[in-house]
Amino acid sequence: MKKYVRHLLEDIRNAHRPEDFFEKTESSIISGEDELDGHFAEVDRYLNIDSEPTFSSYCGLKKEMFPASEYYDQVELQKVNFEFQQMMRSWNLEIDLPNNFPEERAYELMLGILDRSVLVGKYGLQHFGFCTGNPEGCELGEYCPCIEYWKETK
């Protein structure tokens, strides 16, 4: 494994959500509200997600830290993708891609999340599926699960 990849994997592992994250931010987010009020406060934040910080501002990773997917061999790319997804889960963020989706394209979609506004919620998770429900213009391209549905309806 390349030395840079080892360092990058360590950076990804260090970018996991700190265990005390919600304790530090709770006063500013739900300030004494009970659990149900906290949940509804998060729903309201989700409805206004564009005003939320980018994922990069939470985890500290920047897209510039990540080389092009061609830099990695297949094993390295799989490891980076796996560690990145584990790190996302620690922030209550989930990515959902088709089983046969190419690692190179998964890598690019995941890196794009670093620049997106996200809701790091205590009471739920934000899910990234990338499917629009219409295969035309879908980020999943030929792997879009809606392709078969659209073929059957035409």
How is this structure best summarized?
The chain is mainly alpha-helical and 154 residues long.
Query: Whole-number average pLDDT?
Result: 84
Q: What's the total number of strands?
A: 2
Helices and strands, in order, run as HHHHHEHEH
Strand percentage, roughly?
under 5%
- Low-confidence sequence ranges: 27-33
Shape: flat
Radius of gyration using CA atoms only:
18 Å
Structural class: mainly alpha
Biggest sheet, open or closed, and with what strands and sense?
2 strands, parallel
Secondary structure: helix percent: 40-55%
Walk me through what this model shows.
The structure is a single chain. Helices cover 49% and strands 4% of the residues. It is mainly alpha-helical and 154 residues long. It has one domain (3-99, 107-128). The protein has a two-stranded parallel sheet. Strand 1 (93-95), helix 6 and strand 2 (126-128) form a beta-alpha-beta unit. Helix 1 packs parallel to helix 5 (74-90) and helix 5 (74-90) packs parallel to helix 6. The longest helix is centred in the middle third of the chain and has 17 residues, at 74-90. It is flat, with a radius of gyration of 18 Å. The termini are far apart.
